[in-house]
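so im writing up the methods section and need the Heterokaryon incompatibility domain-containing protein record in one place, dumping it here so i stop losing it
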Amino acid sequence: HPRCSQAGSTVLPTRVIDVGEEKSPPFLLETNGAHGQYLALSHRWPISLKYKTIMTNLAQHCREMQLESFPATLRDSLIVCRNVGIRYVWIDARCIIQDSSED
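--- predicted struct ---
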């Protein structure tokens, strides 16, 4: 509908991944109600999920997340977003604090 079709009119989720530029690492961004465009990715998680955000790595993820730490499919999605000019991506395992019942 017209209100949502305007560029930049979407309220961003609580946290998104800022994909950065080619030579900068992506990082987790606390949006504080900011508006922007983003893509959402959800996927079936493996039993042993090593790349999730938890309380002990939240601060590190907000500084940077090594592109190599993402599984290939998710890493490729970040690269595609960079190439088409989409700055933010929401990935459930990385944007929701997995060991926080409140989050």
